[in-house]
């Protein structure tokens, strides 16, 4: 077997990112835009507030009419209009006149202050009069048109993911549709003659398949649409049929798991050597990696089959690529320096990515999620991956770089 190229994590990721094409922009209604990444800056369509609006339930007045008002000597004003929120009317207010007004209603053009209910007596009944017991400052309790944001102002730059808070902010700025990057279409193919997909009986030599739900779910969390999944045995024709089906499903990206090791039945490496380069990355898990472009044009990742290795490989290589395909400004998750709750020996000659549980009630201390880092069930309690430099023994209390996964937040 030819010697394989050795490279660092950063070198491999840089090669992947260099192959990522510019995102394709599409326009979608704001109500459907959750999870998409903005392809262009989103700007306010309207002033916020759109009109001078009342910040209090109370009375819109001429401030001068109540300039001497006090509890001992209230100013007495005639209530000539009633302005619930949503009212379109703009009543004229002569000297000595006030309008009852609710929070969020447009302040009459003639008024220059709103007196809150707490500083008034009466006015809610039908006497037609209200007493002001504290003098309002000029402009009091009026939120001026455009005070928060002006029409045309940038609310969010290109490259930002639209979460719920961002969608609400855009809605409040009158935005009804946004230009976003198309979601990458992803196919996930797991390989291994030992794999029994959910619902299939387990016979000797077979194990439950878990990388399809793992990688498909992670791809969706990274903003992709999963258009095809398959589990195939270690046979080249079966893999080729699955790749053809991924092509028919118009996948942009194909992610395979397994079949990249040095063994005898390494179906992905056998079938795709050439279009993909198979390399060894100085990391554990996730050492063997395949990446390239299939003859049909799709970007393809050949990830190792061990479920923890597949999860780490996705995090380190595939997720940044999927985000780059969406033009995302930030391709990395937050890396926190967190204290180790326990010591552990991470010596291996490679950078280690250790699945860790994080304890938010103990200074966010990290501990390996399981004693055996390769068992897939460690993923059940994994909150992050500690990134441990080569040949490191971690002692209790040491600060370790930890990639924070989404689950705790
Ligand atoms: N002689 C050597 N053997 C191995 C080496 C090596 O350098 N020399 N490297 C090891 C490393 S590191 C890795 S990683 C694996 C890479 O192997 P593959 O990517 O070909 O993975 P498989 O052999 O197909 O599977 C490995 C392991 O994971 C289980 N698996 C695979 N796919 C799934 C799935 N979809 N769901 C659940 N579990 C899965 C599989 O049953 C194996 O136990 O090679 C090492 N060997
Ligand atoms: O690279 Mo393998 O994923 O170390 O276990």
TrEMBL record:
- Provide the reaction this enzyme catalyses: adenylyl-molybdopterin + molybdate = Mo-molybdopterin + AMP + H(+)
Q: Sorted alphabetically, which SUPFAM superfamilies does this protein's record hold?
A: MoeA C-terminal domain-like, MoeA N-terminal region -like, Molybdenum cofactor biosynthesis proteins
Class of enzymatic activity (EC top level): transferase
Q: Which cofactor does it need?
A: Mg(2+)
Record carries keyword Ribosomal protein:
no
Which Gene3D superfamilies does the entry link to?
Answer: MoaB/Mog-like domain, MoeA, C-terminal, domain IV, Molybdopterin biosynthesis moea protein, domain 2, Molybdopterin biosynthesis moea protein, domain 3
UniProt key word Protein transport: no
Pathway entry:
Cofactor biosynthesis; molybdopterin biosynthesis
According to the UniProt entry, the coiled-coil residues are: none
Q: Where is the MoaB/Mog domain?
A: 187-324
NCBIfam families reported in the protein's UniProt record: Glp_gephyrin, molyb_syn
According to its UniProt entry, the function of this protein is described as: Catalyzes the insertion of molybdate into adenylated molybdopterin with the concomitant release of AMP.
Name of the molecule in the record: Molybdopterin molybdenumtransferase
Organism, as annotated: Microbacterium rhizosphaerae
């Amino acid at each position: 077997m030819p010697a394989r190229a050795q490279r660092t994590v950063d070198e491999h990721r840089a090669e992947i990112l260099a192959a990522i094409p510019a995102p394709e922009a599409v326009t979608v209604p704001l109500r459907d835009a959750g999870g998409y990444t903005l392809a262009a800056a989103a700007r306010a369509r309207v002033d916020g507030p759109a009109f001078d609006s009342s910040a209090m339930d109370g009375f819109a007045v001429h401030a001068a009419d109540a300039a001497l008002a006090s509890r001992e000597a209230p100013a007495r004003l005639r209530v000539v209009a009633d302005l619930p929120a949503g009212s379109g009317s703009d009543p004229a207010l002569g000297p000595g006149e006030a309008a009852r007004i609710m929070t969020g209603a447009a302040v009459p053009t003639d008024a220059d202050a709103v007196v809150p209910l707490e500083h008034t007596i009466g006015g809610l009944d039908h006497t037609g009069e209200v007493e002001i017991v504290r003098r309002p400052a000029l402009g009091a309790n009026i939120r001026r048109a455009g005070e928060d944001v002006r029409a045309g102002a940038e609310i969010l730059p290109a490259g930002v993911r639209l979460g719920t808070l961002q969608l609400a902010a855009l809605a409040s700025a009158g935005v009804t549709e946004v230009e976003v990057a198309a979601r990458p279409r992803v196919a996930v193919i797991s390989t291994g003659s030992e794999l029994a997909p959910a619902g299939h009986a387990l016979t000797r030599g077979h194990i439950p398949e878990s990388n399809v739900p793992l990688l498909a779910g992670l791809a969706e969390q990274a903003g992709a649409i999963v258009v095809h999944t398959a589990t195939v045995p270690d046979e080249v024709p079966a893999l080729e049929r699955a790749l053809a089906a991924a092509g028919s499903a118009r996948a942009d990206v194909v992610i395979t798991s397994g079949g990249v090791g040095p063994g005898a039945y390494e179906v992905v490496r056998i079938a795709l050597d050439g279009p993909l380069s198979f390399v060894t990355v100085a990391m554990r898990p996730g050492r063997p990696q395949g990446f390239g472009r299939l003859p049909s044009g799709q970007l393809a990742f050949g990830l190792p089959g061990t479920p923890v290795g597949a999860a780490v490989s996705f995090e380190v290589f595939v997720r940044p690529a999927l985000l780059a395909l969406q033009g995302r400004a930030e391709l990395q998750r937050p890396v926190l320096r967190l204290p180790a709750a326990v010591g552990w020996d991470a010596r291996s000659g490679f950078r280690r990515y250790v699945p860790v549980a994080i304890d938010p009630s103990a200074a966010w201390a990290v501990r390996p999620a399981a004693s055996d880092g390769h068992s897939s069930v460690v993923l059940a309690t994994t909150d992050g991956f500690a990134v441990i430099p080569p040949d490191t023994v971690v002692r209790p209390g040491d600060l370790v770089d930890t990639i924070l996964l989404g689950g705790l937040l």
